[in-house]
Design a protein that fits this description.
Strand content: under 5%
Radius of gyration: 17 Å
Number of helices: 5
Order of helices and strands: HHHHH
């Protein structure tokens, strides 16, 4: 299996897992707070850490398997896991300023971009 196919298959599986897990959590909690996505994001971060470390220290993942699990499954499950990994890598290098700027700008700019998208559609559509 080539890397592109591994990512595509993994992404589909991750997206399905996100959908069904978050829907089950919303159903169980009443949906007044986004617990489903919060759980998915935190779980995605945990899984990214586990997979990256296991792959580096214990298992010899092929490039296709690594791409399937990280970019594919976890990328489809949540892009927050990649964000968490990037932040952790900055912190582990001791680059706290970049880590803080990355977190603040990623979250802040993403929210602003979402509002910009809402505005454009509301005004021009």
């Amino acid at each position: 299996m080539n890397v592109a196919l591994a990512i595509a298959v993994g992404g589909g599986l991750g997206a399905l897992a996100r959908h069904y897990l978050s829907a089950a959590i919303y159903s169980a909690t009443g949906g007044t707070f986004p617990w489903g996505i919060l759980v998915v994001n935190v779980l995605g971060g945990l899984l990214m850490g586990l997979i990256v470390e296991l792959g580096a220290l214990k298992l010899n993942f092929s490039p296709e398997m690594r791409a399937f699990l990280t970019t594919g499954v976890l990328g489809g499950f949540t892009t927050f896991s990649a964000f968490s990994l990037d932040t952790a890598l900055l912190i582990e290098r001791g680059d706290w300023l970049s880590a803080i700027l990355y977190v603040v700008s990623s979250v802040g700019l993403s929210i602003l971009a979402l509002f910009a998208g809402l505005y454009v559609v509301r005004v021009f559509a």
